[in-house]
Amino acid sequence: MAKVQRSLAGQVIAITGGARGIGRATAAALIAQGARVAIGDIDEALVQKTAEELAAGTIGLPLDVTDRASFANFLDEVEKQLGPLDVLINNAGIMPIGPFVDETDAIAKRMVDINLHGVIFGSKLALERFIPRRRGHLVNVASSAGKTGLPGGATYCATKHAVVGLSEAIRQEVRSLGIDVSIVMPVIVRTELGSGTVDSRGIKPVEPEDVANEIVEALQTGRVDVYVPKHLALIVRPAPILPRRLADVIIHWMKADQVLANPDELARQAYAERVHAGVTTAAGAPAPGADDGSTGP
């Protein structure tokens, strides 16, 4: 018997990094399901503009995911304007790439702050609301890179491995309390964050709308492991039991070892400049748009 899908109509859903990319596409997909959506982003002007364009009562609020107080204020305002939070989608992330030895400590710290600490802050703050109500759904957008390691993206992969492990542990803690946890693991997504990367053989980049649709389905069904595309699971899940040499051959054949290692620097220039602007101002107010609001691979 087919599982009955949950209705998302009237659900209060907050999305981090919602001004662009996966966040914006997910907001649009949820609005189409009748959800009441709030998007947060460090780029206050853009997030308000995006909310206006999405319409349907969407609210856009400033949010620095690396600041716990900012995150708490964001969720407080969401509940003040829309009602009790039903779903938090931790989507904000950045992906500077390049040889690990050449990566600056400032870049590494910024990635950890946004990609990991931001998810930790958001998860704790959401659970503080969900646990007393014994309901809620936490969606953490990780990456297929959270299941492997790709040259050119060592620290990025590390943050996404951490998000996968964090989410698995949280799920075990709260699964008996009526709270769901979903882990979203896309390949490269055609956003600015994924610009200039090399296509792998057999698995092509996906669109933000593809990720958005899988998130909607996960919320409707309670699915935990959300691979995008779905058939990615057939490759990722068996990988840990393969002999190391065979795994290396497969990775090389698929050109997965080239995806982040040999990017088109010109195609990534605008994104790289925006990320670096965020790093150089992180000691004070982060530069608008430094938090990409999309994630992948």
Tell me the number of strands.
Answer: 7
Report the mean per-residue pLDDT as an integer. Answer: 92
The CATH homologous superfamily name equals NAD(P)-binding Rossmann-like Domain
Q: Poorly predicted ranges (pLDDT <50, ≥5 residues)?
A: 285-291
- Helix vs. strand class: alpha/beta
Distance between the termini: 34 Å
Regarding CATH, which class? Alpha Beta
* Number of DSSP helical runs: 9
Q: What does the overall shape look like?
A: globular
Could you characterize what this model shows?
α4 packs parallel to α5. This protein is α/β, with parallel strands linked by helices. The model is unreliable at 285-291 (pLDDT under 50). It is globular. The protein contains nine helices and seven strands. A seven-stranded parallel beta sheet has the order 3-2-1-4-5-6-7, with helices on both faces. It has a single domain (12-280), classed as 3-Layer(aba) Sandwich (Rossmann fold), CATH 3.40.50.
